[in-house]
Amino acid sequence: MSSRLVAITGFIITNFLALMLTPVIVTGQPGSLLRVLVFSDEDGLPVAGANVVLYKIANGEADDAAYVEVTNRDGFSEIRNIETDSYLLKVSFIGFETFEEVLIFESGDREERRVYLTPSVEILDDLVVEGERVLAAGEVGIRRISSEQISRIPTPSPGGDLASYLQTVPGVVTAGDRGGELFIRGGTPDQNLVLVDNLPIIKPFHISNLFSAFSDEAIGSVEMYAGGFPAEYLGNTSSVIDVHLKSGNMREIRANAAISPVIHSLHLEGPIQRDRKSLMVHGRKSDIQRYGETLTGEPVPYEFYDIVGRYTYQGDNISCYATGVYTSDSGLINPERSREQFWSNRVLGGRCLYYDTSLDNIIEFTAGYTGYRSTEGPRGVAERSSDVDQFYVHIDLQRILLNQNINYGFRLNYGVYNSVIDERFTNFDSFRSTQPVARFYISTEMELHENLTVQPGVGTQLSTNRNISFEPRFRLLYLPDGTNRRELSLALGKYNQLVSGIRDERDAGT
Predict the structure, then answer these.
(1) Dihedral angle sign, alpha carbons of residues 369, 374, 379, 383
(2) Residues 218-261: tens digit of each pLDDT
(3) What are the E-state strand segments in 302-358?
(4) Pairing with 145, which of 169, 216, 348, 463 sits 20 to 30 Å away (CA)?
(5) Is residue 471 within 8 Å of 231, Cβ to Cβ?
(6) 13-59 tens-digit pLDDT
(7) 468: closest CA among 278, 277, 131, 234?
């Protein structure tokens, strides 16, 4: 690493830590703070999208809603600057009984609640649904995908898969039925950033374009940005696919297996310690190479498998997740060339969310390793190969500044790249590079009017032999009549990608 990069990185880290740590410990705030974690009483898993509402109590009865929040993917929500008074806390979600509790806040109080919602089943009378046809709206470039949506897309195997779902999204195409590559809004596959539990993964899509490493049974939720992604996503220029795995059941052991002529799978999840620790493991292996000729009348010369696992720990003031992914693909993408492609992914890392009430702001920490190996050549001979090893540490924080919630964070990635190219038309046959990259971002969301929301942000990247990048980002959402019947959405920004791949369009595996 050059002295210039060391100096600049040191300057950024020093100022970042000063911003992060001063002041972190609470020393008496005028407004009160409430942090709520919401779980399902059925399986002990976090409930995302639950409504957390504080109603001010007047004359012994709950008045209008004074504070409203929604839980995130970790089942976490936070209400700040609560005025001194008595309140009724209500936590609700469709399909669950509403939780209620009376809370009394004095100046500077800091409260935390773990809420378990009980599933509710009701028998309804005759129901008539009437409605008008309206245009489905959504913020430009963003698609939020649930495991239920993925399971509804037909696949040649039991259950759904993320790869099959993404190919139904406008702007997403593949080069054919083999190759494991997605082209999103005109970008090349190496310009897509794919994350699993905040950990980057290079190429999680299998050689059969119908499958990825992520089935509907293993997925909790997915956020896909086909453009205009915010400042926290730095380093890629085409799209972001942010996958959050499902935690294992905290209350009981569950297992299932499925088999078909295309693929077979095994899923196992259950508690290690009730309501505290759980494990989820999901594995699949292709059968198409064995039964494909019987089904299609011609050989299917490829195979693949994957293993995905997640360990979850829910403490009193901390939530941690350890994630592991391994994939393997091999076969002939173009049988007439008789050249075999192989690639594999290795991901191992963890993410922790620390929300102790002694801290003024929550802290999210991620660290891990990503490895990728790709080869091409006659069977058993790797004439060309590529290896990527990445080590990374990510810190994400929040801070209140001028009554505005500010998100900011620091990423430090160290990548090692090796390639061997046996190509008669080039003047080199090997390549090795190390690429340390430091990234910093800051962003916020501001409601300028009840109908107008903007999300400004900025990010920066620096590495050896590179000038510091300046990448402003901006999103806007405008509802002319205050409803989602009409919507104006705009996103723009500047994007830099410091590392890209050498591509040969004749070989989908390169």
Answers:
(1) negative
(2) 999 999 998 888 999 999 999 999 999 999 999 999 999 999 88
(3) 302-314, 318-331, 340-354
(4) 348
(5) yes
(6) 555 555 555 444 444 455 789 999 999 999 999 999 899 999 998 88
(7) 234
